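Researcher: Sequence of Ankyrin repeat and SOCS box protein 12 follows. Predict its structure.
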Amino acid sequence: MRTSPSYCCLANHSSNTRMDIMRPARMSLVDIGKIFSMFQPRNDDDNGEIKQLSQTVSKDNDQLLEELLSQERYVQFINSRSGWGVPGTPLRLAAAKGHLRCLEVLLKYGAEVDSLDVKAQTPLFTAVSSRHPCCVRALLRAGANPNGSIHNNCSPILTAAREGEVEILRELLEHGAEVNVRSKAQRWASNASAGSGPLYFASVYKHYDCFRLLLLYGADPDFNCREKRLVTRIKRRKTALEMCLRYGCGPEYIQLLIDFGANIYLPVLSADKNTQRKKAVQILMRARAQPRCLISQARIVIRRCLKLASGLRSIEQLDVPPILRNYLKHQT
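Model: Prediction complete. Tokens:
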């Protein structure tokens, strides 16, 4: 049977089409350039003033930055975003690099202290992540939100607790950061939200100073065992005591949780040959066998009441002898 020319042409065309689909497309340099341009900020990135501001901050030249911002044509771009990857403002760049003097100059000329980048991270979050306590302190004094942005899954205090940055953590807590904050995991991710508090991170990564500081500022020692909505979604409660035992934290962690009123009957205890963990279990077993002394019970109750009423800072205003105030602050 003779095949018609038109059918042959159609078959060849179909075959060629299939081959074209299977063959990887070749991209010109122009196409690649267009794709990369999408990662750059769309507004004013080619503006000379923005580039000069960013370069000056990057070089930590605070004197030149002061001269530039004394001119109105530069001030109007002080909150403009630029750069590759994660475009940010000059303030974010200063916070990331730890250039305190430039950061202070930018704040002086009206830089937006809580400006967001494309990841919904504030300059404060960037300073915390980059471990620059001086910049953290300056931003907090300028009015930065210690909790970061509500649109970001993480927060400054979670980052500081995870990294063991006790100095930064103290600054955040002093300026009112939420001590029991959780990462903003999806509602179905119950296990993630159950084990995501600052106290959890401090125990898992064994940052004892951060762990103790969080408890002093009112962290709930049973942080994921009080919310009914959360408890009903998880199969097994992951208490702070259980986390400390599981990750081999020293006996000092267990004793701290007991002193701050953790529910000592929640974790399930099991025999363990690990010496460190065995000591921790022994402390917990001893606490279960002996009731708390009255003065310890009173301290736990008073701290809880103060936290609900006026905050733990009000301990200093109590009309009691200094020795009792120190006891309430666990300084004895």
